[in-house]
Design goal:
homotrimer; Nuclear Transport Factor 2, Chain: A; NTF2-like_dom_sf (chains A, B, C); Hydroxylacyl-CoA dehydrogenase (chains A, B, C); SnoaL-like (chains A, B, C)
Amino acid sequence: MSNAPLLDSAVSDQLYVEVQRFYAVHMHLLDEGEAERWAATFTEDGTFEAPALDEPVRGRAALAASIRHGAAEREAAGEVHRHWHGMITVAVRSDGALAVRCYALVFASPKGGPSRLHRVCVCEDVLVREGGGLRVRSRYVTRDDMPVTARRAG
Amino acid sequence: MSNAPLLDSAVSDQLYVEVQRFYAVHMHLLDEGEAERWAATFTEDGTFEAPALDEPVRGRAALAASIRHGAAEREAAGEVHRHWHGMITVAVRSDGALAVRCYALVFASPKGGPSRLHRVCVCEDVLVREGGGLRVRSRYVTRDDMPVTARRAG
Amino acid sequence: MSNAPLLDSAVSDQLYVEVQRFYAVHMHLLDEGEAERWAATFTEDGTFEAPALDEPVRGRAALAASIRHGAAEREAAGEVHRHWHGMITVAVRSDGALAVRCYALVFASPKGGPSRLHRVCVCEDVLVREGGGLRVRSRYVTRDDMPVTARRAG
């Protein structure tokens, strides 16, 4: 099974709710194509690793570019995507960072056509506090419909 | 992009959790066809605006009637619907009301047939406190599979 | 309509968040096939009743066995399942136990094929506190695509 922390521990309810709220804003920014504001929810050298990516995306500039690219693709396809995080577990690492493991859904809706479940994923984030807010230092996403590949970053 | 508030700000964790709990009860009432109890979670003159509605529904009586109508339609179709809110952001407006922007899913299950994703929506609510509880003063729903139309109420 | 408590009452925000966190860990354990750890989130004589089960499953050993069986079936089918709880309402019973009513989704993803919405369910749990944590004393699941059958356990 996964090596990800399955326990939800040493985290206050306040911090747990803060993580829920962080992801809500994070996903609204992503789905609205707010590239820079979304990238700013990562650390300056934050990484994003996912099966569809040839290599990990590293740093806010590259993260923002990847979202602009994705938004343009969805625009061209006439589709709207919505990202949902749920079943969130949060554990504190020995270095004080937060290890989050949660489920992630992507829904896709073509204009005029039926909405569909696009992806079911597991998202493993390392969150750190910067400037009073939470930031994603590393993200590792696996897709349930694809074999899990070895982790390369984070 | 949307003009809706994307930031989740000036709201305590307690209030954020209260909004989560409000929507859970609100949706159970809706999906159980509890028309009057559901309508009572709106203000007396509360409004509901959605693409499928020719005009905004205004006031508890009309809101309850609309739900009875929908429940009868689902009963006739032999379908059960479930409404989910998630990725909830809450901001305080200058007038003290709460501006909520969240995602809303509708799942449909015909008896004996496969369940399906029915709708993917964005819900923008204005919530106010009345009699100790939260109430919906206005709701504006957009469907991801339909063009966004100009807002008429709220 | 359901006789389940629809109100979310007499429960602190802290306890509500604890229930959210409990279900997140509970579902990660279930979906990872962690049979014993998942069964340990029930009371020793905990019961699980669902339409697909000929009779209620009772006790941790039987609960763990049922999950191992399900995990083997999914493995053979090359599918991954993810369970989501949402729209959670929590009420305190006269005996001090917690009566939870929430929605439950199951997503299924065959390796190499499209993910799909597998089930839409309503889950009614009675939760009690044991050894500092919450435990499921009884679970009653109904599927939206099947007629509701009379309750046999719990």
